Amino acid sequence: MPRRLVKLGFIGLVAVLVLTACGGPDEGGGGGGGAQGTGPITFVAGKDTSGKYPAVINKWNTAHPDQKVSMIELPEAADAQRSQFVTNLQAKSDRYDVLGIDVVWTAEFAKSGWLLALDEGQFPVNEMLKPAVETGRFEGKLWAIPYDTNGGLLFYRKDILDKAGKEPPKTFDEMTALCSLAQQNNIGCYSGQFAKYEGLTVNFAEAVQAAGGEIMTDNGTKVALGAPATQGLTFLANGFKDGEIPKPAITYMEQQSQRAFVAGELMFLRNWPYVYALAAKDEPANKVRGKFGVVPLPGFTGAGSSSLGGLNFAVSAFSTKQQTAVEFTKFATNQENAKEMVGLTGNAPAWPALYDDPELIKKFPHLPVLKEGMQTAKPRPVTPYYQEVTTAIQENAYAALQGQKAPDQAINDMTTKLNEIAAQGG
Amino acid sequence: MATTTAPPRPAVDARPASRPRRGWLRENGLLLLGVAFIIIYCLAPFYWMIVSSLKANPLLDQSLWPQDPTLVNYQEVFSGENNFQYALRNSVIIAGTTTILALLIGVFAAYALARLNFRSKKLVLGVILAAAMFPLIALLTPLFQLFSNLGWIDTYPPMIISNISFTLPLAIYVLTSFFSEMPWELEMAAKVDGATPGQAFRKVIIPLAAPGVFTSAIIVFIAAWNEFLIAYTMTQTLAAEPVTVAIAKFTGVSRFEQPFGTIMAAGVLVTIPLVIVVLIFQRRIVTGLTAGGVKG
Amino acid sequence: MATETVRRGRVRRGPGPAQTSEGARAEARLAFWLLIPTGIVLAVIIAYPVVRAIWLSLHSDARFGTSRFVGLDNYIRAFTGTGADAFWSAFVFTTQLTIVTVILELVIGFAMALIMNKAFRGRGLVRASVLVPWAIPTAVAAKLWEWNFTPDGVVNQVFNTNILWTASHWSSFWAIVIADTWKTAPFIALLVLAGLQIIPGEVYEAAKVDGATALQSFRRITLPLVKSAVIVALLFRMLDVLRIFDLPFILTNGANNTETLSTIAYKEAIQQVHPSYGSTLSTITFVYIIIAAFLVNSLARADVVKTASRG
User: Fold this and answer.
1) What domain range includes position A395?
2) Is A18 on the interface with B (CB under 8 A)?
3) Contacts of A84 in chain B (CB under 8 A)
4) Is the pTM of this model over 0.90?
5) Using one digit for the tens of pLDDT, what is the confidence trace for B266-280?
6) CB proximity B134 to C under 8 Å
7) ipTM for this model
């Protein structure tokens, strides 16, 4: 028989075994216990061009030359960021120290043992926005501190409404009544983000909350979908069917929906606050500069409720310099740095006082509206199985919006699937 | 003494001089149409890339011609935010090293498979081919663990080694096919005609092998240049990120915005030199073809 | 002394049979050492993860618990159990993609190679153009096509259509086919061209002298001689498309039943953090590809392995 092949295989196998045996020492993580270790650390988050991270990192590095922070940048897309976190943390790598994680990942990461439990006494949690702080909690412990938070807003074409002498809508009924104006102007009436991705879960959650309901309760152990969910999903599905939501919106993520609004193709847009700066930008292709306004999200019987977004800072359980990491986290999320962050981005801070800061309001007039929205913002389901939950939501909601499933059928299927997921325990 | 056929030469469109003119037009008319089709097919999207890269806001401005062409996207590519030059450096090193090593290893293997007799040769080639069949996705996690244990994350070796293994099967395959077709007897013929082994190798074997080697080189280089998933998993900073990963990390003003213009600018910057480099190699193929062979 | 036979216009080349058993052993030894580097590289990068994947696939996923040995449970789940819908949908979609894309690429690539093979002025420009789609990094091309296929993107603009490309199954299918074919037809063109250029011009001249038409030349001379190049191209492209990931992931994220075998494996392994079930899907894909390659090999009635290792 092929002795050469056997020899080949043998040498190859030996090589493999030797290589894998040369593992580094297993970097065990510190769980609760004290945070130990100081020195240069890495800060890992998705970057953007606002300059907010360099600002705070430079300040820290100047003050702590022997504990310098260097940033490891991740791509913008939340999903791409998560896959990097998962790959590194599953391998228990010690390369990541401070993590900038999405608010919906706290439960999953904490339960997986990837995060260091934070000592609440060290952080000013009572002075920060309660819903935002809650996104960093799981099973009674604090795992992450809000860096910024986020809530949905309704952008609208002020010029069209003013000309017709109308006020911006406070309920969905009022909004749909105004759709005739959109038709007269040959533009779409309303859009959010309806492609099959996390943004769809956000829009679905907001529709459910607008009807006074929620998706899951009790730390993701009970499914609460019911009549409000059906009402919310039916509203969106009918929007597509009746043409109030333009057909292309089924492919929209944040960027395309923002493009449609700024190009003058929509009367109402649900999106995150970042759109404000883009809609106000002075460039020839911008059709809505000076013509738009912002109000909190509408609901069915009154004001709506936005889904809580935002970014939290956490410390890796496998970091070998956890003390420095915790100190940096404290520093980067304090009120002074939060104010600078808002000044650069217009994002929602986790510090209530900043919403009333006159300097900031002058630059970002949408801050008071944002503050109103944040009072009623609710998080998406808090569960370590969030990935499975959001997949189940997306599949059924998308099918309903495309007209492939009746909304109540979609809610039924969603409920069944979510019950299965919740039954996995925890 | 065995006779040998003439070495391959590029097909020449020889015609008797007295071909009537309308035949020429019909024959070449089709050719011209074909050429036009190729050029439009290949370059239209590339044209769109270039045009988009010259617009300040290509997302909003969808016109087919840039009304206010600007270089702001190209500046953005090399700005302090992106530092694309490091990514370019990394890509050149990674793809270049991969190509050289993969060809070395591949030539050895192909020579053995094409020229030597041994049992289980078919099995070996089959196994090599099978290695090219496993979904890359499944390799990510174990490879990350392996290289993380070795402390090689964010360095060149993981990508070079991985690229070599992905491109090796195809390179070996192409090289083996070429080496099987080559008229090796010409080397013996040259020696009989008085050449030293060195001269025979240089003047006969190398030119004959050139087309196959350069074809494989192009395939390996471009595959390594294009590689994304492994590089994305194994790198973290510009110390080792190649252009594919760097482009994926281009950001806009917020986490929800992708800078389409900048991405297209980077794409253009990355494609043009590559095309030039490959064109240079392409000429060597033709030279190799015409220079080879001994008649006789 | 090398033997040679002229068969169907092809000259058989290659070494003659080994002279002595001593020579045979020496050859075998040399072959072994020449193949060692290949063996090591492939063993580390491919063999080790494959073995690990198969091992994992026989265990259960337990995100927050402990994993147990479950034998073929994961496979049963994929074929007939809770994962069957998703798996078979991806299986069918991937197969459809492969058949359509590879055939399209072969036809277009072959046509390009024929055109590029003719001597004329401006050949350099054509060669350069053909390289462009292939040279553009896949990541950039995927983004480009993602933006081209938006409802207000350039494709709808140029062809004056209003298709929501990524919003339904078949339009997504064609979007992926178009994007992938555009990118890789040049690769096939290059391989086929290399094969065409080996054919000596004299063969065509002789045929013309004998009165053959262009079509007859094509069928009797060109096709048989480039057969091996075409088979190589066909096989490797098939392997690639069966594992396609980037385009469906970026263009549609699997919406409207456009998941491929690789996207579901990725989503299970990395997104849902189910390494065992993800490995199961990868292993099934692996076996499928091997079977497909074997089938194509037999159907083409060319022994791909034998052809390459002739001698």
Assistant:
1) 153-307+385-422
2) no
3) 233
4) no
5) 999 988 888 887 777
6) yes
7) 0.83
